[in-house]
Amino acid sequence: MTKVLYPGSFDPMTKGHMNIVEQASKLFDEVIIAVMHNPAKKNAFFSTEERIELIKELYKKANNIKVVAASGATVDVAILHDCQAIIRGLRSLTDFDYEVQMQQINKEISGGKVNTVCLFADKDYQFVSSSMVKEVFSLGKDISPYVDPIVQDRMVLKKRS
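Structure (tokenized):
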């Protein structure tokens, strides 16, 4: 069984993220979405628990997608969950440069046990990021092209409270 880890903050999960999950779920037996706690990101829209709940709702009918909370080194999370690879979504050359460096470090730290697989989001989602979604949302603009309706509804509810 080939298991892969898809780590990220997913604050919020975008259609770009979902496109990467969809691709990975067709290529691998199990995709573990790791909602990573990043103390450096102080202006989170959703708490880690809210993000996990939301992603579980998005994938409640998927039998090969699991959602977990995680912190620390991504490669350690991959090893903990017996993953053979880490999935990374690429949007630009900047993403590529960063991921090349990280994959080399992760492979070295894991003793060659964990590889990195890069996937490209479909063209409609190449420019979509969580930061962009939050900014557009804060300006009161329509985010429906960028997030699932479940995510949009939760963002609206959270903003009201």
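The mean pLDDT is 94. The two ends are 43 Å apart (CA to CA).
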